[in-house]
Write a structure and sequence with these properties.
With about 350 residues, the chain is of the alpha+beta class. The protein has helices at about 1-35, 40-60, 85-95, 125-130, 155-160, 265-270; strands at about 70-75, 75-80, 105, 110-115, 140-155, 160-170, 185-200, 205-220, 230-240, 245-250, 270-280, 285-290, 300-310, 315-325, 335-345. The strands form 2 sheets. It has a 12-stranded antiparallel β-barrel with strand order 4-5-6-7-8-9-10-11-12-13-14-15. A two-stranded antiparallel sheet has the order 1-2.
Length: about 350
């Protein structure tokens, strides 16, 4: 009789916990529906709320607060080892975009307090002003500010979203007091693209997003120092467990020869960019490769990066670049640099 009573008690308690969990999920759904953007589906909201409930259950069952668990709740929501960083970011971006004044991170935002070059390229500045005493230091501050804003959601039968973005990458000789701490170069890149959600999978590799857009890049200078070009591009984003890949081929938009500041820029900047990001715990490892695929006169670049947590909002960042095109003023000059600084937002 005792065993039957115990079994009934366990069943009642189990059923009660299920009802409580359902009630908490329903409450979460009501809260999220009152604030979420119209383009966020009920299925996406339920997935978010079920993740929140799963985290609550795990925390309740944890035998000690010091036990290591590969699940973390942040102010942005649920993060687990099994979650796709792309799916989580797309969901949170949609949720945050209900604010009409929102600006979202695009490319990584960082400041390299000490970016150390093997040798600064002074040739373009001497050509522009032979009488100027150019004396760049081999260490400077490099920073990037990159923001985007949604323009429209749910285009093409609710399959695509339209974005615009602006990215600034600057090279500041802030320690060069003799030269009045000039900005050696600043690169500006406005762009617009359509982002198509995709779920095609091949041998476990999922093509999550396809982007197609147009980009303008220039350094805002004139005369001998002017650099600019326009491109149309596609960007295929893949994921496999904690590895995220981007294959971004582009085609330069031809300019009038009289107005072209750098007619050979695609010879050095290449025809595509291949990027990879690997997430391990809270450490991110990245690689970028560019190449022109011309084995007679081969030019390209490689960039390696490592970011790691310093606090909840700031990450340490180490970046090494070798090749052509770190800055537009150096698009046809080889550069080799390593920088140390902080990162405010990563790719994912």
């Amino acid at each position: 009789m005792k065993s039957v009573t115990s079994a009934l008690l366990v069943a009642v308690l189990s059923w009660t916990s299920v009802l409580q969990a359902d009630e908490q999920i329903n409450q979460c759904l009501m809260t999220q529906m009152s604030t979420a953007d119209d383009t966020v589906t009920v299925g996406e909201l339920r997935q978010f709320c079920e993740g929140e409930q799963t985290q609550a259950d795990i925390k309740a069952a944890s035998p000690a607060p010091t036990e290591a668990v590969d699940i973390e709740v942040t102010e942005n929501g649920l993060e687990t080892e099994d979650d796709s960083a792309i799916t989580r970011r797309l969901f949170l971006e949609k949720k945050e975009a209900r604010n009409p004044f929102v600006l979202l991170p695009h490319k990584p935002n960082y400041i390299m307090l000490s970016n150390n070059m093997s040798s600064p390229n002074e040739a373009p500045f001497r050509a522009a002003d032979p009488d100027d005493d150019i004396n760049f230091q081999p260490w400077e501050t490099k920073f990037q500010i990159s923001l985007k804003a949604p323009v429209a959601y749910g285009l093409f039968n609710n399959r695509a979203d339209l974005y615009v973005a602006y990215t600034n990458r600057s090279f500041w000789q802030q320690f060069n007091k003799e030269g009045s701490a000039p900005f050696r170069d600043s690169n500006h890149e406005p762009e617009a693209w359509l982002s198509f959600r995709n779920d095609y999978e091949f041998f476990g590799v999922k093509n999550s997003v396809i982007r197609t857009g147009i980009s303008h890049q220039s350094n805002g200078q004139s005369g001998e120092l002017s650099r600019s070009w326009n491109r149309v591009y596609a960007d295929f984003i893949f994921e496999y467990d904690d590895l995220y890949l981007s294959f971004k081929p582009w085609l330069r938009i031809d300019e009038d020869s009289d107005d072209d500041d750098n007619p050979d820029i695609d010879d050095y900047m290449g025809n595509f960019e291949l990027g990879a990001l690997y997430k391990m715990d809270r450490h991110n490892f990245e690689i970028m490769l560019r190449n022109n695929l011309d084995f007679g006169e081969n030019y390209g670049a490689i960039q390696l990066g490592w970011s790691f947590p310093l606090s909840d909002r700031v990450r340490g960042y180490v970046q090494w670049f070798n090749g052509y095109g770190e800055s537009l003023i150096d698009y046809d000059a080889h550069s080799n640099s390593i920088g140390f600084g902080i990162q405010l937002s990563d790719w994912l």
